[in-house]
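In keeping with the milestone schedule agreed at the kick-off meeting, the structural modelling team has produced records for the first pair of proteins. Each record is given below as a sequence line and a structure-token line. The laboratory manager (R.T.) confirmed that both were archived under the project's standard naming scheme.
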Amino acid sequence: MVKNIFPLGFPWQTQDPYLFCVYHLDHYPIGNEEMGPKASLEGRNLGNDFTLKDGWRMYHGQTIPGFPAHPHRGFETITIVNKGFCDHSDSLGAAGRFGQGDVQWMTAGSGVQHSEMFPLLNTDKANTLELFQIWLNLPKVNKFAEPHFKMLWHEDIPILTLDTAVVKIIAGNFNNTIALEPAPNSWASDNNNQVAIWNIHIEKNGSVTLPIADKELNRTLYFYDGDYITIDDETVTPNHGIEVDASTEIRIKAIGKEAHILVLQGKPINEPVAKYGPFVMNTNEELQKSMDEFRLTQFGGWPWPYPDNVHDKEKGRFAKYPDGTLIEK
């Protein structure tokens, strides 16, 4: 049953236990030797470039697009990079380059700084970036969990091929196909919370039926690419979110071309939320203390030479963890 349909803004509207979801689609040109765009940056508000000019944005980057060093506390970031690459560096000394379908799951917990830059590695062709970033809240008991990140490499992420649809299962369970383990202190690590993140591609004039789950769950569908979809005889155009009753059968049909949908589901945490930018706590007093602590400690400082740190151009996909463990793909 459809409960609500709403237009998608920037960022997308979410329901508890989610705090934030944003979709980036940037058609970057060929890259230069510094991994930035081989194009003029004139006329852009560098440092805060969120206007889609010529099909792409620099965000907070000055020479390379992305988000230089910034703090987080009290929640998790789940970054899905379907196209292009993201370079991660953090205050724990951890680093990584991921993309082409990889997912990074980071628990900010008690506090971490990180940067997320988008190196344009192709110097002979365009550098398209397609990325979702989702903020999943942490319950009070885990607000100060030790910071942690893990990689869900695309080679390992379960992909379920149905008759006329493909479901990438980033979190949760879809028709008994179970996702990889999330971060250990996540709300998603308890199966009773039924957290699910599915990226669904439905063929032209095809359909998919979502599994039935508990009524108490929040389930939101984000239709971000296609012509039309139908749900419960409702016709929905792209760039709309649809809140549905998870306990009823939901059949989605793509009308016209292929439809792309992101699904976020989970049991609500049902705790007070006090947030300011990158800090999410339960009370305003905790929020103020968090900001004060960051000013004093910088959450461990910044061990990298630049706030917009990127890795060597020739480096492949990799993850280096705080304990020194290195995984290369």
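The second protein of the pair:
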Amino acid sequence: MDTLKEELKKQSINLFVEKGYSATSIKDIVETIGVTKGSFYYHYTSKEELLMDIHLQYIDDLLNKQMLILETHQNYRSKLIKVVELLIHDIEKQGAIGRVYFREIRHLTPENATIISDKRAKFRDIIEKILEEGMNEGEFRNNLQPKMITFAILGITNWSYQWFNTEGTLSVKELANIYTDFILNGINS
């Protein structure tokens, strides 16, 4: 693994979070680590290619972890809980990259945005599949609308990167438990 490439990516993520993608120049990125623009262009042809690399790293990591959950011999309820925990834990583990992933997709070229959107759809489809199979097995109510429930789960969890403080009074596990309880049980008494 090229450590300079990883450092370029790390520093660009920090700058994109702090200043935004549009306001961050290649000069800003290379100056933070004391290298030349040539070093940047050795690894990336453009700032947009760097942004795509960040997006791919984020979504591919999530998809790989989600597939490991899907392949376990747990029941569907447990798999759903593990996916929610994965999404919340990811905020703690990769907070800055998550902010870039959610905020800066609009700066990708249409071709690259489509690649990322397709991968997001795959992640979403797997959650929907867990819900459908759980309904078929009687683990979830049979009158759910899996597509809408999936969007709700992603809406609840994905927005957390905006406000969740991993150093606050609530742990990642506690937040995941709150979300999972809400998703599975609602707010009925």
